[in-house]
Structures are given as C-alpha cells and as structure tokens.
Amino acid sequence: MFQKLVSHNDDIRRLVDRGYAVAFDSNYMVIRDIPYLDDQRHLQIGGIVTKLEFIDKERVTQEDHQIFFAGSIPYNIDGTPIPNLAGGPTKLALSAACSDVVVQRQFSNKPKSVGKFIDFYEKIESYVSIISGPAIELHSADPYTFHVVKEAVSDSVFKFHDTLTSKAEITDLSAQFKNDVVAVIGLGGTGAYVLDFLVKTPIREIRAFDLDEFHVHNAFRSPGRLEPTELGKKKAEVYHLRYDNFRTGLSVTPKFLDVSCTEDLDGVTFAFVCVDKGSSRASIFDLLISRGIPFIDVGMGLNRKRGSLNGQVRATYYSLEHGQNIRDRGLAPLVDNPDDLYKTNIQIGELNALNACLAVIRFKQLRGFYFEEIPYYHLLFEVGDLKIVGKSDVNED
Fold this sequence. Notes:
The chain is about 25% helix and about 25% strand.
C-alpha cells in the first residue's frame, strides 16, 4: 500500500521526499519521529496519526483538519503548554504493526485564513511547526529522519478500503469478527438481506447456501439492483456475482443443506438459518446442533384477519450451551404449513430487511460489537403495534 499511495498522491510523495517517517496503518497515515518538549523542556519523540479518506483504491484525501498525537502535551521553550491546540486526551486503536505508536491526544488547529488545509503536506507541515518548533530550536531536533517502517501486510477482506471504520474510530470493535466463519443457509428474502449485511462486515469467511433459482418475486424482496439477465439463474450465481468485487472470503454454493452435509460446515463458527419450510429447518437445526455451531434462526408469520396484513417477525438465538433446550421449546416451526400467507405475498421486502437487521444486530452483540444490556435469545417484532418483545432467561418455561 505504501508505494501505491505515494505514487498516486503527490502530497504524500512530498512528505516522503521531505524526510518524514511516513507509514500507513489501514485507513490511517502514521508519521513517527516527531520531536517535542515535555513540561521539563526535555526532548521527547512522538507521532502524528491522521485519517485517510479513500476516493478510490489509490487516491486519498483529508477527512478534516484534525490529527491524533502519540505523546503527552507539547510545551514551549518557556515551559508553558503550546497554545491553540484544541482537543484533548483520547485513545485510538491501531494494528499490532503500529503498537509503538500509542495515541494519547487529539489536536485541532485549522488555518485562520481559509479554515482548512490544502492537502496532507500542508497539514503535516503546519502541525510539525507548531508541535516540534520549540524542540527543534532548543535541541536541534530533526523530524526529517527518512525513517522507513516495514509495512504490515493487510489482512482486510475488503477489496476497497473500509474508511467508515476509521472514521468512527471503531477499528478495535471491527476486529471482533476477524476469526469468524459464518454460514448463511437460505437466500430467500431475509437470507438475502442477511448476506448483504454480512458481506459488509469484516468476517473472515462467509459461506452461503441456496439451491433455488432467482425469479421475479425474489427481486421484490432482496437488496440490490436487478439485472434482467439474473432471472432464471441460480441464486448462488446471482449473489456471488453481486458481491465478488466487494470482498474476499465469500462462497455461495447452489446446494440444499441437510444432516448429511457435515463437511460443508467444517470450521464454521456461527450460522444464520433463513429457510421458510419447517421440515428443512428441523433438519438444519439437527445438523448445526450436532456440529456444535451456534446459530440464529429467522422467520415471520403474517395473516389478514383484519383486512390488512399483520403478524410477527422473529429472530431466535440457539447458543452452543442451550441450543437443544431452545429447539425443544418449539419457538420456530419445524413442520410445513401449506396455508402460510408468506408464500403468496411477495411485497414484504421491508419486513425481510427488518428480520435480517434483528438477526445481524443480535450476532454483533454476541461478538461485543454492539452493547448488550439484556441477553435475549428470542426476539419478536409485532407489525401492528411496532413493538419488540424478547425472552432472556433460558431456564424460564
């Protein structure tokens, strides 16, 4: 990434040519060897970290005028803190390759005349003159060390840079998914949305399974743009083509899973069951529970008893410890219902999306990405009153 960014961004090339110790860590530019004075006027060495906003795979721009600083408060020669560095204490999680760069503060200092920096070169030069000026004068310190740091090999699954993670400063939380291998069983309405959400999550590997073909009714309850040439093809082919250019670690297989498909789940750490036939669900439950794989099952039940559609959307979590116990409670239908209105009413894409949202949010709670106040294993959303209720005590009848 170093050579690519330097060669396609003139402002970064100028920083390297100037002698700055430039390195890159995911979506951050890191500049080491920044001298400054502490409160005793002793020479200290810190680092500057700034976010990269990717325009495309090779070009970057600034997000704002702020920086992160690895170091304590910088001081003037007279022993007073350097003024006009708004901000304060903060933390920022970088990768193990930058474990020596421990961010302690965030600074904000914008040019008074125009309110923003022209580019990264002007930004870094401005901050270095403010932070390092006293150390350069008192100790003849030199921030232009031409220090080259060995670039860490990126382990990102995305083929584009995940700038939203660095924007929100949640790199450490996103790392919770790096060892997950997740199966999505069934790519109907809800399963298609589950897959769409997971593709954009830094899960190491996603395995999706569906034997059916992609027809017009699928287009009404699935994410993404319809290409007429997709109609009649296997769902597996359609969804693989939609997401293959977005990330690695994705396989979509045209296959129906049952208790005999043990090898397909080797290494799987979590699964989503998104099928609408009770008999298929029962077989898949047995397979997952026998393999010791925790999973979330989704479903919805609709009726037209009052003229308009009403019903519930469900997401049920079957943990490794209590999966069989929860299965035995019959919270998900395990037999086929020929009168289910879901099979004939296809204009429910928003409920499919909501069902997928509940399931994926619950999964991300289990991984510590989202805060979990109550450990629900069963969630129900009522369409009529827009309320969500849940069960959390697995020992409760």
